[in-house]
Design brief:
This protein has 434 residues and is an alpha/beta fold. It is built from 14 helices and 18 strands. It folds into two domains: 235 residues, 3-Layer(aba) Sandwich (Rossmann fold); 156 residues, Four-carbon acid sugar kinase, nucleotide binding domain (Molybdenum Cofactor Biosythetic Enzyme, Chain A, 3-Layer(aba) Sandwich), CATH 3.40.980.20. Strand 7 and strand 8 form a beta hairpin. It starts with 8 loop residues before the first strand and ends in a 10-residue tail after the last helix.
Length: 434
């Protein structure tokens, strides 16, 4: 009988793809990791894992709801025995002027009885770096990147202190970690953090221009009960916890066994990366565009996808991806809740096709992933290896057993969808091309 694993690290993530990407990093570092979908309830026992990631859907939720879900999840993790916590935010600091990054950070600090958190959204493997307190996306300031025109969280500033200030309780207690400390190494950062805490700092914004900086910050934060970060710091946090004797040695990472059954690609993100991925995959396999202006978008998409699969291919893509201009035109016609309408329709489509026998699902977009996993009633996901930085293969035991590849809208190379289908089963047959 296997020895039970004690949870040490708990992560509260603001969306499902963010939860999956940090879970993938933890698993890569040899941490036995489980992703729990949605807010845990009191009856849900803690999974047998060293790292537990709770994936919520609160990035753009009303502030009060985001705080309630995040604190309930962190409280459940704390009662499960977790000793160190991460408030996992998007690497592009997605938020509105009201939140939810700052309000949730304040609420989690209060819950844990902590006075200070380190804040760093860097994830260099995916082009997110922080230099002089400003966030860059592939070398471009955040406010000059495609995130400037994001349909839900347009980012019009790159300065993290200015972005965070209006959201937090004590904006005067936002401080910058000196870059020289990061250059000097983890021990220097640990010492500076102790001094800043003693001096009353509450939110410490740190630069991280590369993986080495992230590792230094992660290792130095092992003494903090709460870190507010993207996935770039996760590997360093694991190493710091191992150095402190809180985590055991790395274990093996096994990929989920391939699963029989057709594959479905569901794309709800309208990010630049996803638009290219959709365009590339449409050359290989049947593609169905879900039309938000249709009377019943889900029924139309389900009918078209079933027809495509009945004609022989082992994969079909259903997407709502479009340009920012087109998205804004639809929003003008249908109202601000059109995004939720599209997510529901994509989720209904996924549920119907899984009911038909689909067993491999690739999902693009954080909000879309949350909606689809809710519709499929998935509770826990066992984390496997990454296909790309921040894009793991995960498994839902079922029934039915599903192999899923969830990815943030901006993550992955142009051929990620084909790679994901190939990695989870038989790949895309040439005969599937339209």
């Amino acid at each position: 009988m296997a020895t039970p694993v004690t949870p040490v690290l708990g992560v509260v993530a603001d969306d499902l793809t963010g939860a999956a990407d940090i879970a993938g990093v933890l698993a890569r570092e040899g941490v036995v990791t489980v992703l729990r979908v949605g807010e845990p309830n009191d009856d849900a026992g803690a999974p047998d894992a060293e790292g537990i990631v709770v994936g919520l859907k609160i990035r753009t939720a009303p502030v009060a709801s985001a705080i309630e879900q995040a604190t309930a999840s962190a409280d459940w993790l704390q009662r499960a025995g977790v000793r160190r916590f991460v408030w996992k935010i998007c690497s592009t600091f997605d938020s509105t002027a009201e939140g939810n990054i700052g309000p949730v950070a304040d609420a989690l600090l209060d819950l844990l009885g902590e006075r200070m958190t380190l804040v760093c959204p860097a994830f260099p493997a995916n082009g997110r770096t922080v230099v002089d307190g400003r966030l860059f996306v592939h070398g471009v300031p955040l406010d000059q990147s495609p995130m400037r025109d994001h349909p839900l969280t347009p980012m019009r500033d790159a300065d993290l202190a200015r972005l965070l200030g209006p959201q937090v309780r004590d904006p005067e207690r936002i401080v910058r970690l000196p870059a020289a400390a990061v250059e000097a190494g983890a021990e220097a950062v640990t010492a500076v953090l102790a001094d800043l805490r003693a001096g009353g700092a509450r939110y410490v914004i740190a630069d991280a221009a590369n993986d080495r900086d992230c590792d230094v910050l992660g290792a130095a934060s092992a003494e903090l009960r709460l870190v507010t970060c993207a996935s770039g710091l996760a590997a360093g946090i694991v190493r710091g916890l191992r150095d402190a004797g809180l985590l055991g040695p790395a274990g093996p990472l096994d990929a989920p066994a391939p699963v029989d059954g057709p594959a479905l690609v569901i794309a709800g993100s309208c990010s630049t990366a996803t638009r290219e991925q959709v365009a590339r995959f449409a050359r290989l396999a049947p593609s169905v565009r879900l039309d938000p202006l249709a009377t019943d978008p889900a029924s139309d998409a389900i009918r078209a996808a079933r027809t495509a699969l009945a004609n022989g291919p082992d994969v079909v893509m259903v997407h709502s991806t479009d340009t920012p201009l087109a998205v804004e035109e639809v929003r003008t016609r249908l109202g601000a809740d059109v995004g939720a309408r599209v997510e529901r329709a994509l989720a209904e489509t996924a549920r119907a096709l899984v009911g038909d026998g689909v067993r491999r699902v690739v999902i693009a977009g954080g909000e879309t992933t949350g909606a689809v996993l809710d519709a499929l009633a998935v509770a826990d996901l066992r984390i496997g290896p990454e296909l790309a930085p921040g894009v793991p293969i995960v498994e839902a035991a079922g029934p039915p057993r599903l192999v899923i590849v969830p990815k943030s809208g901006n993550f992955g190379g142009p051929d990620l969808f084909a790679e994901a289908v190939a990695a989870t089963g038989t790949g895309v047959r040439a005969s599937a091309a339209p």
